[in-house]
Amino acid sequence: MWSHTTNPSGAETTTARIEWPMNDHSAMTVRVEASNEVRQLVEYESEAVRRTLSRLPAGATVPLKMESLGSRGNAWRVTELVGVDHTRRRVTSNREDVRRADEERGERERRVKV
């Protein structure tokens, strides 16, 4: 019987294009550029990784390290955003955050209408 939910030895670094941005359940769909494989990202190493990915729109590409969640079909865990330093926090005004959220919501609505 399978004793681990993750496969640490299977972690790989790859560039992925976001097909569907993160939803309300923190899941998102990406396409691995090298193989054209579609993967579902459902777990994240940290809240900082999850938050960073949640801000990216469809079509964005991102280098990341991920591992398969063997017991969950095509589910993957992001273990690292390659080249991103989460220790430095960017300070933004609340007004900029509201503007960005409005733009993202508009983009999602346009995508749904298509």
Structure report:
The protein is globular. It is 25% helix and 32% strand. It has helices at residues 47-54, 94-113, and strands at 12-20, 28-32, 38-44, 61-68, 75-81. The protein has a 5-stranded mixed β-barrel. Residues 1-9 have low confidence and may be disordered. It has 2 helices and 5 strands, in the order βββαββα. The protein has 114 residues and is an alpha+beta fold.
Strands, helices and their partners?
Blueprint: E1 12-20, E2 28-32, E3 38-44, H1 47-54, E4 61-68, E5 75-81, H2 94-113
Parallel strand pairs: 3-5
Antiparallel strand pairs: 1-2, 1-4, 2-3, 4-5
Domain DUF7999: 11-82
Biased composition (Basic and acidic residues): 93-114
InterPro entries: DUF7999
Distinctive features:
alpha+beta, globular, 5 strands, 114 residues
Kindly summarize this structure in a few lines.
With 114 residues, this protein is α+β, with helices and mostly antiparallel strands. Helix content is 25%, strand content 32%.
Overall average pLDDT: 79
Helix content: 10-25%
**Largest sheet geometry:** 5 strands, mixed, barrel
The main sheet orders its strands as 1-2-3-5-4
